[in-house]
Design goal:
Radius of gyration of chain B: 17 Å
Distance between the termini of chain B: 37 Å
Oligomer: heterodimer
Number of helices of chain A: 13
Structural class of chain B: mainly alpha
Number of strands of chain B: 1
Number of domains of chain A: 3
Largest sheet of chain A: 13 strands, mixed
CATH class of the largest domain in chain A: Mainly Beta
Distance between the termini of chain A: 51 Å
CATH architecture of the largest domain in chain B: Orthogonal Bundle
Number of strands of chain A: 29
Shape of chain A: globular
Chain lengths: 568, 171
């Protein structure tokens, strides 16, 4: 039987080279000396060499990549890489290598190997940001990006050289485009900035006009006439002029779908109130059970579809998801668009693995209220190449503390769903309930069930139980005593527990959705010996998140609290 | 610049370098990059000005910075156009070990890291969410999908262990 413990035992055998410790310590110590005593001069020299070496490698890799391109079966994606990366790297390489190689020693080369990679990253970012006319700020930021602080002065110095290379490959148009987008809405500015930060290559990609056979997503007002098509008018977003407070349906439509295995997009509603959402016909019946992301504390703003081990196909202009929204009363421009870096769209490879992201064009929706003027021409969002869309922007590494501890508020991070005190109150709504029971003073190992009714198909469930301090939870070491019901045991795995502060956190993940009503798990409590008849110990139920077999709005879900009542 | 004294640096390094290295390896799949990332993570850590609040904070910070460094690498020009060397493969004790290891290594990067943090390091999904900057839902979804892909790769013989087994496995 192959199990994950086999992975653990294999990983145990991986050993970090002990010699690395001395190197790292030496680098750390040298850094201190370097900054305090030797200053910028050495740092500049070291950075110069590293930059030269780095650029040389980059140039070589690019030439290799170009050779590989010839044999590629995906010319569209490859061609973007060509335009984006190469000229900047190679041109700068020539300049830097000639002028700066002499200023270093072999020792510095060795010691600063790690810096070289960062330097490369910094330089690429610099070029792109230069395109946004923020060279000085960028260079300063980039200097922070290098692991060795000593490289900072050189990084700053390198920026103007890289800048001179930039115009060779970028036209005036993208600058104008970026500026327009920046000035139109704050939301859009954020999106653009994130794209640039996460993947420097994006800026060039945005220059390309969308082609008619490109995979395209469109947010459009449903059943409305008189809206302006972004594609036909060279706009970033479709435009609809709405009445203050108007309620409307916004459809996400797809066009030229070449086959999609995995699709995940989160939307920024730009101040427009979501009322509810529902999936459309585009992928109906083709996706698996894991399709809802109830991220944050809002209505589902993330769509998350995955094919049943095969690509899904959608007809042109079919609707993936419909959002029902309410337009604000105030005049202004409200933009519905992709949130964060981008969406993820992938297809299934011939080997059964997932292929890279599909490139796509995304048109959001600008809702204009009052006499807000029409936005100017701008480019839509063009998806990023592989890996760029994987993560949130990389701001954590460079700015401030990348990790913030939670304050431990037991009520933080919960879904804002109705909570009732009896199952009857839940009606036909899907409910995650804690059983209410009776027990006697001094009873031990009293079972309390957590169950679901009107089950829409639990795939993933994050549950927090907060119980009265009067009862104690049986615990076996770190793990409270509980049992998963057999209906879930085969396909759900417990993942997190926290038995402090009278809170239990349960988290279950399914491989397939469980659709039947019934017990999810049973936990056990001890009743105090000195409890009196009539004492009631409450156990409240809270949802952290829920993924079900169909799109759920928070109004479709509730929890039911339970209690233990002490009887004679 | 350096806010951490040598003794403290050594303590931090000794305590965490294997975890950082293994997580980096899970992301990059080769020891050279994993070592580079490990170096970068500790240099960042040693240059950090604020003290850690506690051990948990320290560990989580290191894990998160490791993940971020790995993401940097995966996005980098060099990484995109080069194939990681297939090296530093552990000496496996059994065919199951080998097969499961390779199946995990063949997962997409984001699944590998989540699998590693969850199964090997023993973090909860909420802790992982904090480290990789995603919601807990997203982490669970990734775990779910990773397991699905593992089952696809390893066939019916792949079994998702009971919790007790995992706890033992985590030591």
């Amino acid at each position: 039987m192959k199990q994950m413990r086999h992975y653990c035992s294999a990983a145990d055998k991986l050993r970090h080279d002990p010699a690395c410790k001395e190197e790292i310590m030496a680098m750390a110590r040298q850094e201190k000396i370097h900054i305090s005593k030797r200053g910028i001069i050495t740092g500049t020299a070291a950075a110069a060499v590293l930059l030269a070496v780095n650029i040389g490698v980059g140039s070589f890799l690019y030439s290799q990549h170009k050779a590989l391109d010839t044999a590629s079966n995906e010319p569209a994606e490859v061609s973007e890489y060509e335009v984006k990366e190469a000229p900047v790297q190679t041109t700068a390489a020539a300049e830097q290598t000639v002028t700066e190689t002499t200023a270093t020693t072999a020792k510095e080369k060795t010691e600063r190997t790690t810096t070289a990679k960062n330097q490369k990253e910094a330089k690429t970012t610099t070029v792109v940001k230069q395109d946004k006319q923020t060279a000085v700020t960028t260079a300063a930021k980039n200097s922070n990006q290098t692991a060795a602080t000593t490289a900072a002065p050189k990084s700053t110095a390198a920026a103007p050289k890289a800048t001179t290379a930039a115009p060779k490959v970028t036209t005036a148009a993208p600058k104008t485009t970026t500026a327009k987008r920046t000035t139109t809405t704050a939301k859009h500015t954020t999106t653009t900035a994130k794209q640039t930060t996460a993947a420097p290559t994006t800026t060039t990609a945005v220059q390309k006009p969308p082609v008619t056979d490109r995979l395209t997503y469109n947010l459009v007002p449903a059943d409305k006439t008189g809206w302006t098509s972004a594609y036909e008018n060279d706009l970033a977003n479709n435009v609809y002029r709405a009445q203050p407070g108007e309620q409307l349906r916004v459809d996400l439509k797809v066009k030229n779908d070449p086959g999609t295995y995995f699709l995940m997009m989160s939307f920024d509603f730009g101040g427009v109130q979501q009322l509810r959402a529902e999936y459309g016909s585009a992928y109906a019946g083709q996706h698996g059970p894991s399709l809802l992301g109830n991220d944050d504390l809002s209505l589902p703003q993330t769509i998350d579809l995955m094919g049943k081990m095969s690509d899904m196909h959608a007809a042109d202009d079919s609707v993936i998801v419909s959002y029902y929204v309410k337009v604000p009363q105030n005049a202004g421009r409200y933009t519905l668009t992709l949130e964060g870096v981008n969406g993820e769209v992938r297809s299934l490879g011939s080997d059964g693995g997932e292929k890279g992201y599909r490139n796509f064009t995304f048109y959001g929706l600008d809702i204009l209220v009052g006499d807000t003027p029409m936005p100017g021409t701008a480019d839509p969002i063009i998806s990023e190449p592989y890996y760029a869309a994987e993560d949130t922007p990389n701001n954590q590494t460079n700015e401030g503390d990348p990790y913030q501890t939670n304050e431990g508020d037991p009520y933080s991070g919960l879904l804002n769903v109705p909570a009732y005190d009896s199952p009857a109150e839940a009606g036909n709504t899907m409910a995650v309930c804690v059983e209410s029971i009776t027990a006697h003073a001094g009873d031990k190992h009293v079972p309390v069930r957590v169950y679901v009714k009107n089950n829409a198909g639990v795939v993933s469930l994050g549950l927090r139980l907060i119980h009265s301090s009067g009862i104690s939870v049986e615990a076996n070491g770190r793990k409270p005593d509980f049992t998963l019901d057999s209906a879930y045991a085969d396909c759900l795995a417990l993942s997190s527990l926290n038995d402090e502060e009278n809170i239990w956190g349960f988290s279950v993940i399914g491989d397939e959705g469980v659709n039947s009503d019934g017990t999810i798990l049973t936990f056990y409590v001890d009743i105090p010996d000195n409890a009196s008849a009539g004492d009631v110990f409450k156990i409240s139920t809270h949802l952290e998140d829920l993924i079900t077999g169909r799109l759920m709005n928070l109004g479709d879900i509730c929890t039911v609290n339970g209690f233990v009542r002490v009887v004679e | 610049m350096n806010a951490v004294d040598t003794q403290e640096m050594e303590r931090i390094y000794d305590q965490h370098h294997e975890s950082v290295y293994r997580l980096a390896f899970a992301y990059c799949r080769n020891c050279a990059d994993a070592e580079d990332i490990t170096s970068e993570v500790f240099l960042k850590c040693f240059a950090r000005k604020q003290p850690f609040e506690n051990d948990t904070h320290e560990t989580a910070w290191l894990m998160r910075v490791t993940v971020n460094q790995c993401k940097d690498l995966l996005r980098s020009f060099r990484y995109r156009f080069t194939v990681p060397l297939d090296e530093a493969i552990p000496a496996f004790d059994s065919s199951e070990e080998s097969e499961v290891w390779h199946a995990v290594m063949n997962l997409p990067a984001k699944y590998r890291s989540v699998i590693h943090l969850f199964y090997y390091e023993g973090y909860s999904t909420s802790e992982i969410a904090g480290m990789i900057g995603k919601s807990e839902t997203a982490v669970r979804t990734q775990l779910h999908r990773a397991r699905k892909l593992l089952r696809q790769a390893l066939g019916e013989e792949f079994e998702n262990e009971a919790d007790e087994t995992l706890l033992q496995c985590r030591g």
